[in-house]
Design a protein that fits this description.
The protein has 173 residues and is mainly α. The protein contains nine helices and no strands. It has two domains: 96 residues, no CATH class; 64 residues, no CATH class.
């Protein structure tokens, strides 16, 4: 792959706090093109022998980890630095950080989804992408054991807490 086409392959936005859904697919596609995804996803196990195959696997692991690290904003890099030699753990840690299963993350994901409006100069394609990202966040914020009743109770409880915190206390004067 030429230098320019390799740079084009990695021209997507670095992972920050709010763009995991799109970054995940872009990074996965880049790793697939470079034939590093199977290793990163854990589907290609490290061979025990011969030494040449072990060395090749380790080189691919370093390349995958380096590519992932380069496509992270500084704040995200700090969170995975201890996995610089292990793209499997690095990918898993990033995924785990984004798929938090708690009432606060669910409430925020749903609140963000229902707050989406079309910007004046925004194309329908861009709007659709933002909606898809928000849906992805909503799906990742809940597990299969969460019932509709549990979810409704969480929304009422969390919604009441956030409403109370937004109200200003009455002044005494």
């Amino acid at each position: 792959m030429s230098e320019s086409s390799s740079a084009d392959l990695l021209s997507f936005t670095k992972l920050g706090e709010s763009n995991y859904p799109t970054w995940e697919y872009d990074m996965r596609a880049a790793l697939q093109v470079k034939k590093l995804w199977r290793l990163t996803s854990g589907n290609e196990s490290k061979p025990s022998s011969p030494p040449e195959k072990v060395e090749l696997w380790e080189e691919k692991a370093e390349q995958a980890a380096g590519l992932i690290y380069q496509k992270l904003e500084h704040g995200m890099q700090i969170l995975v630095q201890k996995y610089m030699d292990d793209p499997i753990k690095m990918w898993g840690e990033l995924e785990k950080m984004q798929h938090q299963d708690n009432p606060a993350s669910r409430f925020i994901a749903y609140d963000q989804f229902f707050s989406i409006t079309k910007k004046e100069d925004e194309s329908l394609t861009a709007l659709t992408a933002r909606v898809e990202d928000a849906l992805h966040k909503m799906r990742n914020s809940r597990n299969s054991a969460l019932t509709l009743k549990d979810f409704e109770d969480e929304l009422v409880r969390f919604g009441s807490l956030t409403t109370c915190s937004r109200q200003r206390p009455e002044s005494n004067g």
